[in-house]
Design brief:
Largest sheet: 5 strands, parallel
Order of helices and strands: EHHHEHHEHEHEHHEHHEHEHHH
CATH superfamily: Metal-dependent hydrolases
Number of domains: 1
Strand order of the largest sheet: 4-5-6-7-8
CATH class: Alpha Beta
Structural class: alpha/beta
Shape: globular
């Protein structure tokens, strides 16, 4: 029986006290004051937020577990300085750890990083190590900590190499995921997310990152941004740039999820992108929460779209389970320990 693993979940329903503390932290930074102590949040408060939302929807939609990280739009590395980001990352990751401890068969934890526009990656290296030591299986890596102004070096730049070395050492992948936008010209989930996904892929084409790190693994979410729709463009650009074919140059190391909120979009993804590069994901209770009036189903009920694909059951099982276990070997090991 295939295990249904949702590779893209965020704790968008965190307890109010957690979010209130963040507002107090930001206000304290602005005022040049020390933020208050992080509040006490009970296990029952966490259970209430999860059982009414993510766990309920997982059960209703027929999935088994989700790879779970802090709310993407709230990571906000552009707010404050590195110290603010570090405290916020620790608070979020510790909360995700508690979710996974309460429901170990449902949530596999992934961490956010204490990135900041003026910071190097050492703090992120330290936090990744701390989180993996607690049982985390991956991280979210923000290619643009500026919040929509794209001031960081491309992902192929040596700036990132110390962090990649730690990823390889720990054998964990990263989901390339930006956060909230502070650029008024970029709507966060409708423009910034999709643009950043697409920009990241083009950066990887232009460089030779996977020559230096052949075992590095990235998930580009939201169906890979605009990439599958413009696959011919990117293949042609690789040729013009005298790069190898994308199959060997990028696609042994880059994977896309199914956070594409209509059937024709998921059909295109499966038609264009090789099966081994597609992971089931929904990002439910996330960017698009309503019901599609043309189908009567929730836009982010993406399992329904994968179920409807005209592919073999073997290929469907790879999207739902097999590919995630390959991309997240620490998850695979945890599942094997449970006899799965």
């Amino acid at each position: 029986m295939t295990l249904i693993i949702d590779c893209h979940g965020h704790y968008t329903t965190a307890p109010a006290a957690h979010n209130d503390w963040r507002e107090a932290q930001k206000a304290a930074f602005k005022a040049g004051e020390t933020p208050p102590a992080y509040p006490a949040i009970s296990d029952d408060e966490i259970r209430e937020t999860l059982e009414a939302n993510q766990i309920r929807l997982l059960k209703e939609r027929g999935a088994d577990m989700t790879i779970f990280s802090p709310r993407a739009s709230a990571m906000a590395p552009h707010v404050g300085d590195e110290g603010v980001s570090r405290a916020w990352a620790i608070a979020n990751n510790d909360l995700i750890k508690r979710c996974a401890d309460l429901y170990p068969e449902i949530f596999a934890p992934v961490c956010m990083l204490p990135q900041s526009p003026a910071a190097d990656m050492q703090g992120s290296i330290d936090e990744l190590q701390r989180c993996v030591d607690m049982g985390f299986i991956g991280c979210n890596l923000n290619p643009d900590p500026s919040g929509g102004h794209f001031k960081s070096p491309p992902l192929t730049d040596p700036f990132w190499y110390p962090f990649y070395e730690k990823m390889v050492e720990l054998d964990v992948p990263a989901m390339i995921h930006v956060s909230g936008s502070c650029n008024p010209g970029l709507h966060a989930t409708g423009a910034y997310y999709i643009a950043a996904d697409t920009i990241a892929f083009m950066q990887l084409i232009e460089g030779d990152l996977f020559r230096d790190f052949p075992s590095l693994r990235f998930i580009i979410p939201h169906g890979g941004g605009a990439v599958p729709y413009h696959w011919g463009r990117y293949r042609g650009l690789a040729d013009m740039l005298k790069k190898p074919d994308l199959a060997g140059h990028v696609m042994n190391n880059v994977f896309f999820d199914t956070c594409v909120y209509h059937q024709p979009g998921v059909n295109l993804l499966a038609d264009v992108i090789e099966n081994k590069n597609i992971l089931f994901g929904s990002e439910m209770v996330g960017a698009v929460r309503g019901i599609d009036p043309t189908t009567g189903h929730y836009f982010d009920d993406t399992k329904r779209y994968v179920d409807a694909l005209d592919i073999t059951e073997e290929a469907r099982a790879a999207i739902f389970e097999g590919n995630a276990r390959k991309v997240f070997p620490r998850l695979d090991a945890q599942l094997k320990e449970r006899g799965l």
